[in-house]
Amino acid sequence: MTARTPATPTIKGTTRLYAVLGDPIAQVQAPGLMNPLFARLRRDAVLVPVHARPEHLEQIVRGLQRVENLDGMFVTVPHKVAVRRLADRCGPTVDIVGSANVLRREADGSWLAENFDGSGFVAGLVGAGHDPHGRRVALVGAGGAGSAVAAALLTAGVDRLSVYDTDTAKLGALVTRLGAHWPGRVRALTGPQLGDIGIGIAVNATPLGMRADDPLPFPLDSLPPGCVVADIVMKPRETRLLREAAALGHPIHHGIHMLEGQLNSYRVFFDLR
After folding, report:
1. Does the keyword Iron belong to this entry (predicted)?
2. Most buried one in 42, 54, 204, 214, CB count within 10 A?
3. Domain that holds residue 109
C-alpha cells in the first residue's frame, strides 16, 4: 500500500494569506499545524514563514499590514514584545504581559494584537496530566513568551510562581506587573538555581536549547524528585534540557504542546470554522 502524502495547499488568486514572523525562522512549527487545519476546514488560506530581523521588523509588519489579502500574523522569537506597538489595539492579555504572539486584521482594516502563548502552554500541561493548579512553579525567562506563560500559570491557580531572568530590569518589571494582579503569589529569583523552593514544575521559557551548544537554562541536579521539567522550545523536540532531565528520571514536557494548545484559540480568534 502506498503511503498517503499530506495534501499540498492549492495557491490561487483568491487565497488568503497568513505570515509567521521570527528571527531565526527555520524552527517554526506553526505552518505544519495551521496549513493542515486550513485544509481540514476547506479554507482557501495558507500560512508562510517570514524571516524578519529585529532592525527590519517595523518595515516588514507595516508592509504586510498593507497587503489586502493578508488576514493575520503569528509572531515568535524575538519579536513578541516589539510587535505590540505595531498593532492598533491590544487584547487584555497583551496589556498584562506586555507582549503579543498574533495579530488579526479587523473588518475596518485596523489590527488587533493578542497573546495565546500562556493559555496554550497551560492547556498543553493540563492535557499531558500536569495540571499546575495548587503547585509551586519556577519559570526561567521573562521575555515575551515567558511573560505570557507566567500570567497563564497564575490564572490557572499556581500556589507560588518564582521567576528568574538574567535581565534584572525585565525581571523586575514583569514581577511588578504580575504582582499587581496576583499579589503575594509571585517572586523574583536572584539566580537560576531552582531546587530550594519545593517546586513541582520547572519551565524553560528562554530560547536556550534551540542550538546544540546552548547551555542549560537552569541546573537540574537540585530539582526535587518528580519535578516536571517543561520546555517551550519546539525545535529541536528533544532539547538538551529535556534529554538530561529525562535521564535523571524527571517527567518532561515538550515545547510543541504549547502550540498545539493554542489551536482552538486560533480558530476562534481568526473565525476559522
Report:
1. no
2. 204
3. 16-115
Helices (H) and strands (E) in the chain, counts: 9, 12
Grid cell digits, residue 63: 508592509
Asked whether the beta carbons of 112 and 104 are under 8 A apart, the reply is: yes
158, 248: one domain: yes
Tell me the per-residue pLDDT of 238-271, one tens digit each, with 9 for 90 and over: 999 999 999 999 999 999 999 999 999 999 999 9
User: For residues 202 and 218, is the Cβ–Cβ distance under 8 A?
Assistant: yes
DSSP string, 10-67: ---TT-EEEEEEESS-TT--HHHHHHHHHHHTT-SEEEEEEE--GGGHHHHHHHHHT-
Contacts of 56 (CB under 8 A, 6+ apart): none
Burial 236-249 (b: 16+ CB within 10 A, else e): beebbbbebbeeee
* pLDDT digit string, tens, across residues 43-57: 999 999 999 999 999
Q: Nine-digit cell at 86?
A: 505595531
pTM of the model: 0.87
Q: Which three cell numbers stand for residue 160?
A: 507560588
Order of strands across the sheet with 201-204? 186-188, 160-164, 136-140, 201-204, 228-231, 252-253
Annotated catalytic residue within 12, 80, 170, 235: 80
> Are residues 69 and 35 part of one domain?
yes
Nearest to 161, CA basis, from 117, 211, 197, 213: 197
Averaged pLDDT score across all residues of the chain: 94
Domain end call among 83, 115, 147: 115
